[in-house]
Structure formats: structure tokens, C-alpha cells
């Protein structure tokens, strides 16, 4: 905006300057009104930019149940024994459990809300030969042994990449190999109350 020169002292405004300031003030006020109206959607301009968030899913844990333990159990098929001591009746979540299942997203197959727990553990083949380890079969303590579903992801040490590969078959371990695995135990069904309170999960492996 061009400056207006005046011979009046500072703090005084003559008639000519008043006549120029009035229309400028009117224009400024009009600009503010228009901008405010556009932002607040008075003219309908903002309506196309807002997204509707649909209703939230059902509460899958209405009783506040927690997972108090996740135990690893292993069965050896064949003469070899003790190759995977980390899975022999040990806890797979010593630093995590007890844990309240958290909302992590939706089931990709049908869009159902799902809640669960992620946990990580390392498995080492301490034997002197190559051994195969099955994917774990999950059972749940409580009224419904099939309440939780388990998915296994691989592997930070076996292939030197971040977790993210969903396994469909169990990994193979050469002698002395350590593999880090991620498990995602989740449910799309409501978790019922347990009389004694809380749940224990069991990850059952087979080694050959």
C-alpha cells in the first residue's frame, strides 16, 4: 500500500488523510470477513474438505481382561532333543505381560475391528545339525481355547531386514543360528470375562 505523506505533526491526522484511511479500513474489514467466512464454511467452501469419521467399532474387551502370560512349549519329533531351549516351557513375553489387548486396526479380509498384543522373541538352535521349527499353534486359557489367532512375522537376523514378512511355513535353523520372530496374537471377537480373571496364551511348537 502506497504511503501518504502529511505535513501534520506525528499523532495528528488531517482531513485528507482521514478520507484515505476510511476506504482502506472498510476494505480491510471486508477482507477479514470474507476470509473468516471461507474458513468456517459459511459459504460452503469447507464442506468438501471435511471427512466423515464413521462410528467406532464395538468394544472387544468390555471386561478389561488382560493377557497375563504367553508361554512357549515345544515337542521334538525324532531323536533330537533340546535344540530350542528358549521354547521349552518358557515365557515369551517376560517384559510385556500382563498386557491389555490394544486396538491395532482391522482384519484385512473382512474389515472387522481387531485387538491383540504383539510380542518378540529370539530362537537359537543350540544343536549341531540343521533343524526345522514349525509355526506355533496358539491355544488360549479360559472358556474359549480358540479365541485368539496367531500370525508369525520374520525376521531381523535371518535375512537382515525389518520385521514384516508373514510366514506361512516355519523357519529352518542351521546349527547355531538365531532368528528373531514377531508374533501378533489377536481377536475379532469380544473377549468374555474369566472367573479367575485374565488370560494365558500358549504357543505350541514342533521341531524336526
Largest sheet: 5 strands, antiparallel
Q: Kindly report the oligomeric state of this protein.
A: single chain
Strand content: 25-35%
Poorly predicted segments: 1-55
Radius of gyration: 32 Å
State the separation between the terminal residues, measured CA to CA. 84 Å
Report the average pLDDT across residues.
75
**Structural domain tally:** 2
How many E strands?
11
Question: Helix and strand layout, with pairings?
Answer:
Layout: H1 15-40, E1 67-76, E2 90-91, E3 102-106, E4 113-124, E5 131-132, E6 137-140, E7 149-154, E8 165-166, E9 172-173, E10 178-187, E11 199-207
Parallel strand pairs: 1-11
Antiparallel strand pairs: 1-2, 3-4, 4-10, 5-9, 6-11, 7-8, 7-10
Report on this structure.
This protein has 208 residues and is an alpha+beta fold. The protein has two domains: 39 residues, no CATH class; 141 residues, no CATH class. Helix content is 12%, strand content 31%. The chain has one helix and eleven strands; from the N terminus they run αβββββββββββ. The strands form three sheets. The protein has a five-stranded antiparallel beta sheet with strand order 3-4-10-7-8, with no helix packed on it. It has a four-stranded mixed beta sheet with strand order 2-1-11-6, with no helix packed on it. The N terminus is likely disordered.
Task: Provide a compact summary of the structure.
The chain is of the alpha+beta class and 208 residues long. It has 2 domains: 13-51, no CATH class; 67-207, no CATH class. Helix content is 12%, strand content 31%.
Amino acid at each position: 500500500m502506497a504511503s501518504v505523506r502529511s505535513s501534520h505533526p506525528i499523532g495528528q491526522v488531517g482531513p485528507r488523510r482521514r478520507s484515505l484511511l476510511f476506504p482502506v479500513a472498510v476494505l480491510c474489514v471486508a477482507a477479514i470477513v470474507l476470509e473468516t467466512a471461507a474458513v468456517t464454511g459459511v459459504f460452503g467452501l469447507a464442506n468438501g474438505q471435511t471427512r466423515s469419521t464413521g462410528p467406532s467399532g464395538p468394544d472387544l474387551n468390555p471386561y478389561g481382561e488382560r493377557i497375563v502370560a504367553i508361554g512357549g512349549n515345544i515337542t521334538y519329533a525324532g531323536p533330537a532333543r533340546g535344540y530350542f531351549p528358549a521354547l521349552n516351557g518358557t515365557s515369551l513375553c517376560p517384559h510385556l505381560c500382563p498386557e491389555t489387548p490394544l486396538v491395532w486396526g482391522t482384519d484385512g479380509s473382512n474389515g472387522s475391528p481387531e485387538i491383540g498384543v504383539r510380542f518378540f522373541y529370539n530362537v537359537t538352535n543350540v544343536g549341531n545339525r540343521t533343524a526345522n521349527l514349525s509355526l506355533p499353534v496358539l491355544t488360549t486359557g479360559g472358556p474359549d481355547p480358540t479365541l485368539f489367532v496367531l500370525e508369525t512375522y520374520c525376521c531381523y537376523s535371518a535375512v537382515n531386514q525389518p520385521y514384516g514378512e508373514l510366514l506361512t511355513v516355519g523357519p529352518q535353523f542351521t546349527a547355531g543360528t538365531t532368528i528373531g520372530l514377531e508374533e501378533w496374537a489377536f481377536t475379532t471377537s469380544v473377549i468374555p470375562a474369566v472367573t479367575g480373571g485374565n488370560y494365558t496364551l500358549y504357543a505350541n511348537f514342533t521341531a524336526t
